[in-house]
User: Fold these one by one.
Assistant:
Number 1:
Amino acid sequence: MAEGQFLFSKELDVAVRVVHLACALCQRVQNSLLSSNGSQVNSKDDDSLVTVADYSVQAVVSRILSEYFGSQNLSIVAEEDAQTLSKSDLLQEVVNTVNESISEAPKFGLKISNVPVGPSQVIEAIGRCSSSGGPKGRHWVLDPVDGTLGFVRGNQYAVALALIEEGRVVLGVLGCPNYPVKKGLVNHHHQLTSEISSASPDMWDKGCVMYAKRGAGKAWMQPLIHGELKLDSFESARSIRVSSVKDPALATLCEPVEKANTSHSFTEGVAHSAGLRKKPLRVYSMVKYAAIARGDAEIYMRFARAGYKEKIWDHAAGVLIVQEAGGVVTDAGGRPLDFSRGIYLEGLDRGIMACSGAVLHEKIIGAVDSSWECSLL
Ligand SMILES: Nc1ncnc2c1ncn2[C@@H]1O[C@H](COP(=O)(O)O)[C@@H](OP(=O)(O)O)[C@H]1O
Ligand SMILES: [Mg+2]
């Protein structure tokens, strides 16, 4: 048996279970939010949104990782900030949501003390996630709700948890509660199937959790569990693989929905010059990486405005899953993304591109270079 097989086994097991638990939490909050006119949403100082789900997932993940791996030397890099929550009118609802989620942890095979927590413990759990990562040691990286805008709009979002060791991503887990395992991202009419999937007796119609371990050469997908089912083993996991399409004319490009987060006009020019013919799929969150890893799309491009610094929690889990599923992820200069330099992807050359294989990747890199000179980016 390969020596690396057992490396990070416990970490992966806990991370997958905790992401399942977090997805269940998010689904409840998203349902209640959509029926209550957004009373569970605040704006942050940078005008982005934060919800009860963002804070609650961060608190639950922090408590469970501390329980399993000890709080002493635990380093967690995550998006939400305890001080902002302590002043927010969402605090009580967050406390209730955290307690509700922790009480169902056994269903996900997680053991954690079920004594209800109060506001100060929730704030402490969130505050524990203020590590800034770096090149040495082990760091968990969490985006509790990636694509918060998609989340509040009843659309796609993801829960993303990764483990970085000595500056390299070694585990990636991505929960995609509105990405049905069976139906995929688009229907027969090429329309996004992003609305919340309706109740169905078939578990493969539900959202999914994907995961990968560095060096395994494989990535996996499981359906979310619902109702009285328990997550006892990982038998329901199937391996996923990137698409084998090499012809740009047949390739699908994924990109952010928000024009503030990428230059749609630049990527349109690149796509045209590389010979892409299909309409791009605009999708919120790291579900774009999931779509590449599953073979539902071939290319993900992201060109943020000059001066914006990409954060590691928006990429770590997705990048590893795409790579282990057979894809290639680099910056626009063809270099690997550097997760070793703190909370930002420092030194990123222009933009990010994830492709299903080397042939398309090379064509896209070439098209970026030829389009760059004429662009105003
Ligand atoms: N100006 C900007 N350019 C690029 N990305 C941005 C941005 N402002 C915010 N983001 C990031 O884009 C993420 C959403 O990605 P996408 O556009 O692919 O759906 C946000 O994650 P959160 O929703 O977790 O805050 C946020 O971190
Ligand atoms: Mg994010």
Number 2:
Amino acid sequence: MNATLSRRPLRRFWGWGVACEHLTQEESARIGMMVQMLGGQITDRTEPQVSDFTLPAPRIAPPAALAAMFSDTPLDRLNHALGKSYADLARMWLRQVPHVPDWVAYPDDEQAVIDILDWASRHNVAVIPYGGGSSVCGGVEAAVGSSYAAAVSLDMERLNRVLEVDPTSRAARIQAGALGPELEAQLKPHGYTLRHYPQSFEFSTLGGWIVTRAGGHYATLMTHIDDLVESTRMVTPSGVCASRRLPASGAGPSQDRMVLGSEGTLGVVTEAWMRLQERPRYRANASVRFTDYKQGVQCVRALAQSGLYPSNCRLLDPMETVFSGVGDGSAAVMVLGFESADHPMNEWMRRALEVVRDHGGSYDAESVERSMRDDGGEEHRSGTAGAWRQAFLRMPYWRDPAVGNGLIMDTFETATTWDRFEAFYKGVRKDVAQAVQQATGHPAFVSCRFTHIYPDGPAPYFTIAALGSAQGDVASALAAWREIKQAANEAVIKHGGTITHHHAVGRDHRPGYEQETPPLYRQMLQAAKATVDPQGILNPGVLIDPRDRQVGITGALGRT
Ligand SMILES: Cc1cc2nc3c(=O)[nH]c(=O)nc-3n(C[C@H](O)[C@H](O)[C@H](O)COP(=O)(O)OP(=O)(O)OC[C@H]3O[C@@H](n4cnc5c(N)ncnc54)[C@H](O)[C@@H]3O)c2cc1C
């Protein structure tokens, strides 16, 4: 049952992390408290096992020459059936996985990717590129409709090497299937880092980051992976499309920009040249408290427009401080940080703290001073910033049992301009809280933090925690989630935000994407897709439909 062609440590197919890792006693107690606080009860539900699932036989045989790279074991197929959204976890707990790929292919190299796409194009087989499978919007689910002969999940894990480092230009050629820790471990001996740390860092890949336009470490300037990409190489059913290594170019619409955000619909990214950073030696950190959230927001706006460009500037609203364990809900907290490999950041921090004081923020001056003296040390991992970081890293592990106990724990993220933010924040929270109350009969806890900030607006990230069902019934909670997710999609668009700042469109955000973009633009994308993928085999139903096929909204939100 546990046979797999994967060469990586065995993943927990129904949740987050590797299969052998478990929560600490303290963490389990914390989940229990949370479930009870929301009015639920801890149930001793059995975790999903591979043997709980009956999978249909694969509908097509792989080509003989490539067969050694194809797996149809239940574990491999289940591991690639869904991403890691709330709805994905809930469906795993329910043992309801309606779109299992017929096969999982593990190409050894780029030529194998070319051969697989060629075979799939000729046999009407849908291909779903797969990086770490951490999609939270239905990006890797094989919900491709009934017009395909079969569906193959194309797992890029064997293309996971750093191939070249150019220290002069400070860039590296990295294969797309490298997970965050894999690429960082290979860059470290060269003294470099990519410094792209999404919360899913451990289990997401360079290729996934590029095609979903992932948001990472930096709160300002290099916020998206886009800013770190120097050039890309993508295999399409019509041939290989590679861009030149250039620091910048004004030659027509950017080729790399077609790849960024393409979500596996135009081709399979096999490698990219990425801009690197030196490891930071100088840091300055502060945890700031605002008794008035509005003043905190104004302070962040002033910082975003100051030209100081902090690397970290996350404003947690009072409810978010409770979720993160860094406050009691009586105040907002801003985690502020500067870093550099080249020069001390003390003057930047001192100026930022003047801005903070002007907006009524308070902080522990001694701890800020310590962080500035602690060149290269661990001060930034202690205190409020450290507690927040620890909760940030462990949160995905806590979600698994919470979902199994009937809680709805979900997040959605967006961006909007400063002039609209106040009304946006109020409107979105109100609409979502109402939707939760209506769908579940229970109150919602809706919190917000800024993940990234820009001179013209923030990227707010909302977390919803609610009791989906008092009896811990996951099916009722999932049904309620469908209504809540639709309401959240509508709320961010209605109040003036984007459907996604960095989680991508996938399947679950398509309704919002279709409201956000003009039909003519989506037709341009379809035309581009028809050129590189004339049979429409690549990730059908994600982002857009192939030109001549109606896949529509499928997956967790749509028809099954
Ligand atoms: C707990 C948690 C925390 C998260 N935190 C963040 C965060 O901080 N920032 C953020 O931006 N996102 C975050 N995400 C979302 C997710 O991790 C990102 O979207 C990530 O970029 C996906 O990478 P992946 O390698 O896991 O891709 P997958 O989930 O495997 O795939 C995502 C999409 O990319 C396509 N794809 C994957 N690899 C390739 C390739 N080589 N070529 C072409 N298409 C490909 C897939 O077909 C799919 O459409 C989080 C998710 C979870 C579950």
